Amino acid sequence: MTALPDLMIEPQVRAALAEDLGRAGDITSLACIPAGTRMTTVIAARREGRIAGLDCARLAFQAVGGCSYEALAFDGQDVPTGALLARIEGDARAILTAERTALNFVQRLSGIATLTRAYVRAVAHTGAAITDTRKTTPGLRALEKMAVRFGGARNHRFGLDDAVLIKDNHVAACGGVGPAVRAARAAVGHLVKVEVEIDRLEQLEEALAEGPDVVMLDNFSLADLRIAVAAARGRAVLEASGGVDLSTVVDIAETGVDVISVGALTHSAPILDVGLDAVA
């Protein structure tokens, strides 16, 4: 897994810094710290986890200027409690101005990567792949989906424009599963994947008859998931979705579905606690 280029990350980092600086800048550091004061700090993990977002931290410190950033760990790495992730040296005012923005990105994205790792490990004995969803923080989708990849899972579609996903309301508006899939197939090019969501077993054969690439089985019981897997016989990729958490994901994976999409990877991941510590 390679990191996103700085060109894609920097606008979000600068926007976060600007939000924190507000109208007058870091008045605490300006008031308390004499100009020219220098310090050395480290970013440290307060508990074990999988790291993501260090490039965001680097860009935050670079944006304020006056300090250097040395990486001591890398995104996608599993670290123990107490591990040092980066060393930042230079102007004390600059370092403390960027501190919270840098830590917010690392905490948030490492939390996603760590939770994702848990899901991937839970189903490793099966053939099911874990993917994320579009339930992401507005403006941070690319970063959060990057963190999912660092956690070892795959990305679902990034937006409305990179694949057709016919949901229940599309089906209702089109008059049924079959008409919706046929309309989509007729409208998009041969490189565009078509997925259709069904919420009951009776819709499966109608969906499969239209040749979708993927059928999403929304909130199916375990018994119905097994029936769907047997009935589909590989005619389409089967994706299980809805109500997935760490207490249910193993049973879902063991039904034989190909993909399990998990909104919780991004909408409910707790942060990984990291901090900035001054060193002598």
TrEMBL record:
InterPro entries according to UniProt: Aldolase_TIM (IPR013785), NadC (IPR004393), NadC/ModD (IPR027277), Nicotinate_pribotase-like_C (IPR036068), Quinolinate_PRibosylTase_N_sf (IPR037128), Quinolinate_PRibosylTrfase_C (IPR002638), Quinolinate_PRibosylTrfase_N (IPR022412)
Keywords for the protein's UniProt record, in alphabetical order: Glycosyltransferase, Pyridine nucleotide biosynthesis, Transferase
TM regions (residue ranges): none
GO molecular function: nicotinate-nucleotide diphosphorylase (carboxylating) activity
SUPFAM superfamilies the record matches: Nicotinate/Quinolinate PRTase C-terminal domain-like, Nicotinate/Quinolinate PRTase N-terminal domain-like
E.C. number(s) listed in UniProt: 2.4.2.19
Domain Quinolinate phosphoribosyl transferase C-terminal intervals: 112-277
Enzyme class, UniProt record, top EC level: transferase
Quinolinate phosphoribosyl transferase N-terminal domain location: 26-110
The UniProt record lists the keyword Transmembrane helix: no
Pathway: Cofactor biosynthesis; NAD(+) biosynthesis; nicotinate D-ribonucleotide from quinolinate: step 1/1
Listed PANTHER family: NICOTINATE-NUCLEOTIDE PYROPHOSPHORYLASE [CARBOXYLATING]
Role of this protein: Involved in the catabolism of quinolinic acid (QA).
Protein family membership: Belongs to the NadC/ModD family.
The protein's name: nicotinate-nucleotide diphosphorylase (carboxylating)
Organism of origin: Caulobacter ginsengisoli
Highest classification ranks of the organism: Bacteria, Pseudomonadati, Pseudomonadota, Alphaproteobacteria, Caulobacterales
